[in-house]
């Protein structure tokens, strides 16, 4: 990797897909300007609390341990680590791909690989953003102990929601499950114990959170909710939002084509609808969203880009 201003290629993201792409760009002797939003290696992995036992070569106690292993490998490699820079927008012009960064000068590249992954999905209701880190949480593993023995609420009808409800109840909390839809997407191994747990109450379905306000005079929040169409409210110490992940990528001009679910649409060669712009990893909505598939996708995209620049 060289001086950012001299690179043909911009690699955005340093999760498993980005790290794998960086390794293969180095193998193919492609000069790359490598950025990640925080300059760290690991992507979403430090926020994965479960053990990672389905990546060949080693087991990891949690995502942070795998992120550390990736960071150590990058530190020892002959190429540079990612620099801290967030891409704000990308525009296709006659010169190539013009990139605007947050807190950095704009630059032009011939190719860009977006390995920008996903982020935890939010409800998008008033008061949610302001409560994050206080009385709104996106992680039961990280925050269950903080609210042990108190009244809490959780939204999410998938594995994360149901497993999270059990985790919260195990700390002695009284748990309100607020579900939007009848069909549970969670595995039976989580659903059955939740349904029979004396400290978990599944509210009538659908129950929808409309807004979140800090509770006056004490810690916690008041949720304005709608239970089967009837307005109501619920006072809890914390609302846990466990509704999956969503793709994240900067705005592109012309608009980048996406799938119905909002992931970046790519062809078999990782090409997006914008010339010169490629995407790989979880941001393209793989059938199996996993470290192993992200790593393979990043490597293959780097190969295609290297080939397109005459490096093979
Ligand atoms: C709760 C949970 C549990 C999981 N458990 C497992 C498991 O057990 N086994 C398994 O194999 N997989 C698991 N996964 C999936 C795995 O973590 C992902 O598939 C993998 O991290 C995807 O890698 P990625 O590189 O595509 O994206 P990410 O890891 O999301 O990395 C994205 C990168 O892009 C950067 N970025 C984003 N936007 C910008 C921008 N505008 N400018 C600059 N940089 C930007 C970020 O800083 C980050 O470096 C789990 C995921 C979650 C959420």
Topology:
Blueprint: E1 9-12, H1 16-27, E2 32-36, H2 63-76, E3 83-84, E4 86-93, E5 96-102, E6 104-109, E7 111-114, E8 118-120, H3 128-131, E9 136-137, H4 140-143, E10 151-155, H5 159-170, E11 174-178, H6 188-196, E12 200-202, E13 207-214, E14 221-227, E15 230-236, E16 238-241, E17 245-247, E18 252-253, E19 277-279, H7 291-308
The structure holds flavin-adenine dinucleotide (FAD).
Write a brief structural summary:
The protein has 312 residues and is α/β, with parallel strands linked by helices. The chain has helices at 16-27, 63-76, 128-131, 140-143, 159-170, 188-196, 291-308; strands at 9-12, 32-36, 83-84, 86-93, 96-102, 104-109, 111-114, 118-120, 136-137, 151-155, 174-178, 200-202, 207-214, 221-227, 230-236, 238-241, 245-247, 252-253, 277-279. The two termini are 17 Å apart.
């Amino acid at each position: 990797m060289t001086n950012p201003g001299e690179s043909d290629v911009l690699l955005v993201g340093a999760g498993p897909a980005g790290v794998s792409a960086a390794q293969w760009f180095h193998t193919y002797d492609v000069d790359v300007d490598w950025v990640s939003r925080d300059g760290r290696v690991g992507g979403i992995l430090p926020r994965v609390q479960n053990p990672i036992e389905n990546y060949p070569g080693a087991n990891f106690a949690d995502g942070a341990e795998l992120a550390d292993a990736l960071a150590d490998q990058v530190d020892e490699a002959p190429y540079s680590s990612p620099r801290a820079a967030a891409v704000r927008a990308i525009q296709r012009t006659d010169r190539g791909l013009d990139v605007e960064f947050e807190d950095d000068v704009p630059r032009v590249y011939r190719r860009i690989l977006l390995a920008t992954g996903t982020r935890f999905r939010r409800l998008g209701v008033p008061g949610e953003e302001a409560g994050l880190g206080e009385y709104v949480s996106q992680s039961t593993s990280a925050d269950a102990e903080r609210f042990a023995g108190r009244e809490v609420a959780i939204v999410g009808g998938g594995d994360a929601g149901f497993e999270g409800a059990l985790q919260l109840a195990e700390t002695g909390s009284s748990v309100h499950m607020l579900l939007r839809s009848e069909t549970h997407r969670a595995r039976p191994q989580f659903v059955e114990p939740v349904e029979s747990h004396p400290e978990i109450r599944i509210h009538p379905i659908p129950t929808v959170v409309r807004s979140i306000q800090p509770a006056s005079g004490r810690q916690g929040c008041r949720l304005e909710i709608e239970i089967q169409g009837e307005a109501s409210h619920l006072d809890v110490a914390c609302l846990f939002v466990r509704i999956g992940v969503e793709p994240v990528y900067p705005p592109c001009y012309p608009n980048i084509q996406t799938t119905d679910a909002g992931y970046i649409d790519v062809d078999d060669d990782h090409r997006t609808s914008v010339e010169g712009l490629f995407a790989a990893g979880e941001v393209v909505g793989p059938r199996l969203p996993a470290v192993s598939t992200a790593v393979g996708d990043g490597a293959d995209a780097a190969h295609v880009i290297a080939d397109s620049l005459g490096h093979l």
